[in-house]
Amino acid sequence: MKSAIKSGKMKYIAVLSLITAAFVLISVFYLFGVSIVLEEDNRIYFDEIAFETANTVESRLNNLLNSIRNYSYRFTEFEGLTEAEQNTLLHETANASGFHDFVYINADGNALSARYGEAVLSNRDYFRNPFLLGTDYVSVGIVGHFTTEVMNMFSVPVLSKGEISGVLSGALESVYVKELINTDTFDGKSSSYIMNSEGLILLIPNNDILNIDAGFSLLEMAELTSGSEDAVFELLGANNAFGNFSFTFENENYFASFKSIGISEWMVITVIRTGDIAAVTFNVFGMVVIFTFISMLITSVAIIILGIRHWVFNKKFRETSDERDNFKNTDLLTGGPSFDKFITNVVDIFDKTEPDTGTYAMISMDINKFRTVNDHLGHDEGSRILIKLSELIQRNLTENETYTRKNADSFYILIKYVSDIDIFGRLDTLINDTYYQVEEFKLILSFGIYKIDDLTMDVRSIIDRADLARRTIKDNNESSYAFFDDNMLTKIREEKRIESIMEFALESNEFKVYLQPKYDLNNHTYIIGAEALVRWFRDGKMIPPGGFIPIFERNGFIVKIDRFVFEEVCKQQKIWLNRGYEMRTISVNMSRMNLQEPRFVRDLYEICTKYNVPTKYFEIEITESVAFENLETLTRVFNELKNYGFHISIDDFGTGYSSLNMLKNLPVDVLKIDRSFLADAKDERANNIISHVISLALSLHMKTICEGIETEEQVNLLSGLNCDMAQGFYFARPMPIDDYEKLLYSDNKVTS
Who wins on pLDDT, 548 or 683? Predict the structure, then answer.
C-alpha cells in the first residue's frame, strides 16, 4: 500500500516536473524569440536617432562655416589694404565672430592672424583644400602654427572677380568642437564621433564611451560581429553613405550607426553598447529565467510580465512613431492637418467615394493683406487669429471633408456639395462666423473654387486650379469668391507653355531692356535718369509684362531676369562712359526672391566690376510690400548695397502699410509714390497724403518721384507739392535703349 502511494507520488512528481520543465522550456524559447524582436526594434529606433544626431552635428558645423562665409566678402580686396587696415579688419572679424582666431591666407600661402601675426601656411590642408578645390573645409584637431593649443580650423574660399583669391579660416578650440558632437541620446549611454570613409576616427566627443584617441582606426582595431570588413568599407565609401554594423572592442559588444554629412567627406558614427540598446529585453529575459527555476507559477507570472513588458515597449515605440508621424502630419501652429497630410486625406476620400455618389469642390482661401494684422496687433495676436480661423473651418466640416493651412494665411478646404447654392452657403457661414468670432480685426477673405469633375486627377493640379481662381480676385473691401472656368485652364496651359520656353528665350536674347526716362520737376525738359524695364519679344510680337512677370515671380525665374536686366544696363552704361557722355543713374527693379540670395549684392557688385562701371550710376528698386516683410534681412541687404555705393529706392510707396519707424532706420535714397494717388488730381485727401509723404522724405533726406504721370494737371500738382522727379506717359513711354540714347544724348553731351 505504502509502496503504491509512494509510486503514485513519484508519478505525480514526475508529471509535475515534466509539465514544469515544459513550461520552462516554452517560456525560455518564447522569451528568446521576443528578445530578438525587441533588439531589432531597438536597433531600428537607434538608427533613426543616430540619423537625427548626424543631421544635428552637420547643422552645427555648417552654422560655423556660414558665419565665416558671411564675413568673406569683406576680404575680397584684403591685400589692397594697408597693414593697419588689415589688422583692424581681422581683429574686428575675430571679435564679432566668436572664433578664437581669424586668419587670412593669400594665394601664395602667406597668412596673417588676428592674434599672432604672419606665417606661411601653404602646406596646411585647411588652406590647400579650399584654395585648390573651392570647397569649405573643417580640419581635425591640430596643434596650430601659432599656439600649442589643439584647434580645429574652419575654412572657406575668398572670391574676387569670380576667382579664388585666398582663404579665410576661423580657429576654434577642439574642446569646444567636441561639445558640438556631444549627444545625450539613450540617457547619455551613446557617443557620436566624426569618422572618415576609411574608418579613421577624427573627432571625439567629451562623452567618449570607447575611451579612444583621435586617429584610432575603428575597423582595424575592433572585431566586426556583423558583416564582413569589405562590406562595411563598401558602405563607407558610397556616396551619401549610411548604414550600421556590430563589433567587439576590449571585450565589450557594440552597435554602430553611421551617416555621411557632406563636410570634408566626413560622416557621423554613433556607438552604443549592445547591452544598453537592448537593456529592456535582457532584463526581462534574465528575470524570467531566474524565476523559472523557482516554480511553474513564478514562470507563468514571468511569462505574463514578459508579455506586458513586450506590449508596453511596443506601445511606447508606437507612441514614439506616432509622435514623429504626428509632427509630420500636423500643422504646428493650428493643430490641424499639415499640407502633406491634407493631400493624403484627399486621396483617401476620393478612393473610397463611389462613382456618382458625391461631388466635391476644392477651395483656396486667403486673408487679404494679413500682414496688416501683424503690423497692428503683433505676430502673437496674428497667430491666435489664424488658430481661431482654423477652428472655425474645422467646425464647419462634415464627414469626408478636410482642410489644411498651407503657409502663413493660406488655407485649402475640400467640401462636398450638391449645387452651387451649397458652396455659397458654406462660404457665407464661414465669413459670418469669422466676422462675429474674430472681433480684433475685420478679416477680408478671398476664395478660389474649383468644382472637381474627375476624382482621379492629381490633387496638386486640383489645388493649382483653385489657386488660379482665387488669384483672379482683385483687392476688395469685402470677402469674395471666384470659380475656376475653362478660360483659366487655358491660362494654366499658357503658364506651363511659358515656363517650358523661358530658359530658351533668355538664351536666345528674346528679352530686351527698355528704359523709361525720369524728369526733373524743377526743369521739365531735363532727364535725370531712367527706369529699366524688361520686354519679351517672340516671333515678332511682344508678350505683355503682365503675362510673364507674375509667372516668373512664382517659379523663381525672376531672379535670372533681374540679373539679366542689371547686366544689360551695366553694359550700356559702360558704352556711354567710354564715349564720355554725361552719366545718369538708371534704376533696376529687384524682386523679393533676390533678398534671400546670400550673394545677391555681391553678384551685382561683381557685374559692375566686370564692366568697370561705378556703382553710383545704379539705383536698386525694392517694392514697399517686400520692403517691410523682413526688416532684419532687408536692413542687412540695404546696408550692404550702400556699402558698395548703390542708390536705393522704395517703389510703390503708399500702397502698403509701412512702418515709419522701419523707414527711419533704412538707408533709402528715393521714395517712389504710387500712381494710384494721382487717379484724381482734385482728390484733396490723396493730395494731402502725397504732400505729407514728400515732407516725410525731405525730413529723412530722401528724394521723391511719382510714377504714372499722364496729364499736365498732375505735373503742376506735383511741382506745387515740391516733388523732385516724375515719370509717365506725359513725358515719355518706355523705349528701346537706342531711342533713349538719341533722346538723352542727341547733342552728344560729355561728362561735365
Answer: 548
